[in-house]
Amino acid sequence: MKSRTLIALLSSIGGGLVVAGGAALGARAGVKGQRAASQRVVEMLPTHAEWWRERLHHEGQLTYLAIGDSAAQGVGATVPSRGYVGLLARRIKHRSRMTVRMVNLSVSGATTWGAKKDQLPKLRGFAPDVCTVSIGANDIADFHPDKFERNIRAIYAAVPSHAVVAELPCMFSPDRERKVAVANEIIHRVADELGLTVAPLHTITKRVGIRRTFFNTYGDLFHPNDRGYEIWASAFEPAIDARVDTVAAIRHYLSAREAEDLGREAGAVANARAEQDTAGADDIEHAHRPGRMDRLRERVTGSIPIPGAQDRTGTGSEGPASRSGDVGGAA
Known about the structure:
Layout: H1 2-55, E1 62-68, H2 70-73, H3 84-96, E2 100-104, H4 112-123, E3 130-134, H5 145-158, E4 164-166, H6 174-194, E5 197-199, H7 201-208, H8 210-215, H9 226-253, H10 256-262, H11 266-287, H12 292-301
Parallel strand pairs: 1-2, 1-3, 3-4, 4-5
Helix pairs in contact: 3-9, 4-5, 5-6, 9-11
């Protein structure tokens, strides 16, 4: 009996050692794989940057400008165009049915201070129709709320009033999430003060959950992969769609001089004119649509009323007495 107990104990210990050893080997392989992926990221950086620089020379009927870090560069995606900026550019093109010039000022590794220092001076040379800002994730490792707010305020004050600015994404680590919560409170408060639209990136990435986020992340366990960037893009899409529609309204209902003079109010004025135009079209459509009594008369008499041919007094050019077949008309 004692020998059986001893054998069971030794087997249990041996099994535990095997499991521990397997876990150690798996962890070592995981660390090795993450390091290799991180090295591949380093190799991606110049390739992605050159790809976006080349796009600066392309012409387009609309200009989309992005400020950000390596996520805006699309690092971690199979190709730069599969990053969230590339996906949004494609969406803008399809929704507007116009060509799009891409101006991606983002720099891999940029913090809010770096964006303020290096990207804002370049912004002055452009008048974008659509603008997105996603910056601040690289600040979290060494986070200082006061410095973060100063930099964010400078960036948000410099971008166009129609810019869409993003929350920081969910990072799931409790320590990082505490810092992200402070950063996102600053982002919302400053954006509200300046009238900017906030893309709910944290809300959407948190909703995905840590398990799915793991599979939506590149091998370095930091940057999104193709699927991850689709989720990022979805956070911007409603605001981007609204902006593209506003740009279309401005171009259709305002002259270039009017748009310039109106400034921040141009979108509201153009949308108001578009709504009036739509309402007028609906009124015309309804005016030409037979009413319930007209449809009843058609069924009873077999007549086909001509819209607008009869006024309320029955004295139109083709009144009731002038058309055979109408009730009360001549035989």
